[in-house]
């Protein structure tokens, strides 16, 4: 797809034409047909993670069309070392907080490790909880050909599914750690997985840590939007973990992360200033007292 055809969702907020799905007006709810229509028109869009009320409200107001309550909450909220330990019961309140706090964004809930791999029936039961109990608009699951039955089961029963292929963090031990997937001949396998998930009814798919050339082939071959994270410039959308792109997390960042702020420094300075004011007796002042 030619780069010159691409615009962003925030640049294009007025409906296109009178027929079919179109990009929603500024405060209209983002629906899956809007995302598909943007791919069809060559418009790129953004996705960020969100796990709480305030980030959900800020990102929604900023025009981010899709908010992912990711299993990345495991190591960005709960303090686990990886995404594997987080449970359904730990993620449900986070999804509920985000879905209650947005007026426009589509809220996408990650299905955590162990909650959907066993069978399509298990996947349906888990996904139904996120839809019924937490107000999610769609769910995301990881895996390739082995996940086709799960995707078919969910979509047949009214649950929109975003697939996730390439590097799949829930399989990090099997994959040998954080490694780029789809190099050389493996790109053909990845392409076949993408086509199968497209045919199974997925409304989109995340491509994580995939060579740009392979991601381009997939984006051109499938009918639904691709969402890149470390997958080059030709995907239909891009996603980042908000703590990474805002500079709240201070560890070494993956190559694909661009930091747009330095919240860690801002918050450290503010906390230090507060502690100093309290220690010196300058807070609370008279104006802060009743």
TrEMBL record:
Biased composition (Polar residues): 1-15
Enzyme Commission no: 2.1.2.11
Binding annotation for Mg(2+): 71, 110, 142
Pfam families: Pantoate_transf (PF02548)
Function as written in the Swiss-Prot or TrEMBL entry: Catalyzes the reversible reaction in which hydroxymethyl group from 5,10-methylenetetrahydrofolate is transferred onto alpha-ketoisovalerate to form ketopantoate.
Protein's organism: Brevibacterium yomogidense
Binding site for 3-methyl-2-oxobutanoate: 71-72, 110, 140
High-level lineage: Bacteria, Bacillati, Actinomycetota, Actinomycetes, Micrococcales
Region (Disordered): 1-26
Annotated family: Belongs to the PanB family.
GO biological process: methylation; pantothenate biosynthetic process
One function term, GO molecular function aspect: 3-methyl-2-oxobutanoate hydroxymethyltransferase activity
Protein name: 3-methyl-2-oxobutanoate hydroxymethyltransferase
């Amino acid at each position: 797809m030619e780069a010159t055809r691409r615009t962003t969702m925030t640049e294009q907020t007025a409906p296109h034409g009178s027929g079919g799905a179109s990009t929603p007006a500024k405060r209209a709810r983002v629906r899956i047909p809007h995302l598909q229509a943007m791919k069809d028109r060559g418009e790129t869009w953004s996705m960020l993670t969100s796990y709480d009320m305030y980030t959900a409200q800020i990102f929604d107001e900023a025009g981010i069309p899709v908010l992912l309550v990711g299993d990345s909450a495991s190591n960005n909220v709960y303090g686990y070392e990886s995404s594997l330990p987080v449970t359904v019961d730990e993620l449900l309140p986070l999804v509920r907080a985000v879905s209650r706090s947005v007026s426009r964004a589509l809220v996408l809930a990650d299905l955590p490790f162990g909650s959907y791999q066993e069978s399509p029936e298990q996947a349906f039961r888990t996904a139904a909880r996120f839809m019924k109990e937490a107000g999610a608009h769609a769910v995301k699951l990881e895996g390739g050909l082995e996940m086709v039955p799960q995707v078919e089961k969910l979509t047949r029963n009214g649950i929109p599914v975003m697939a996730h292929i390439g590097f799949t963090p829930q399989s990090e031990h099997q994959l040998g750690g954080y490694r780029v997937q789809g190099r050389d001949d493996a790109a053909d396998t990845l392409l076949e997985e993408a086509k199968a998930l497209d045919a199974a009814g997925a409304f989109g798919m995340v491509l994580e840590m995939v060579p740009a050339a392979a991601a381009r082939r997939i984006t051109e071959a499938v009918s639904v939007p691709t969402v890149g994270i470390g997958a080059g410039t030709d995907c239909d959308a891009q996603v980042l973990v908000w703590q990474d792109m805002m500079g709240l997390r201070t560890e070494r960042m993956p190559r694909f992360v661009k930091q747009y702020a330095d919240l860690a420094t801002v918050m450290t300075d503010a906390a230090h200033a507060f502690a100093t004011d309290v220690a010196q007796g300058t807070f609370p002042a008279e104006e802060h007292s009743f």
